[in-house]
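FORM 7B: Structural annotation worksheet

SECTION A. Query
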Amino acid sequence: MFPSQRPYEKLEFILRRHWLILAKEFVIFGVLLLIGIGVYYMAGEYFGDVSEVANFIFTVYVLIVWQIFFVSIVDYYLDTWIVSDHRIIDIHQTGFFKRDVSELRYSKIQDVSVKVNGFIPTIFNYGDLVIQTAGAMQEFHFQQIPKPNLVRDRILHLHDKYMRDHVGDVEIHDTLGEGTVG
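SECTION B. Predicted structure
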């Protein structure tokens, strides 16, 4: 189940960024923490007894680094792409309190392309998937997803099936109960 799922809609898969992106955040957090600890102890060695002000500055530094790390984890986890048999939903989290949700019906897809740039993304098989649309939002951009070529193939397969089953982009499930199809 996912938010706004229709009764006839089947969830195909959910995407998040590649795990290596989160691992990079852990490494950056660790390096920033080690730099802070190193500066704190070097200041203690150089100036002798570390003052209350230095303790306060170090504590504020650690809290700021922790907050940046926590925001990046929340952003990683809540940035989600939901692919169903009828549409694609892009949930983009920006900070703690801002979320953008966009929806793309398969009938609006014009082109699907994959971009894998760099040595690390090539080795670990992750990259960007860009869907050109005919709607108000010109592009759906899936950033740093695992196996982008496989995802592209699955989306194109779902697009073909949707177009075959929904001639003229008429949602047969919405009109069956209204007596308009006959």
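SECTION C. Observations
DSSP finds five helices and seven strands in the chain. The longest strand covers residues 87-94.

SECTION D. Sign-off
Analyst initials: ____
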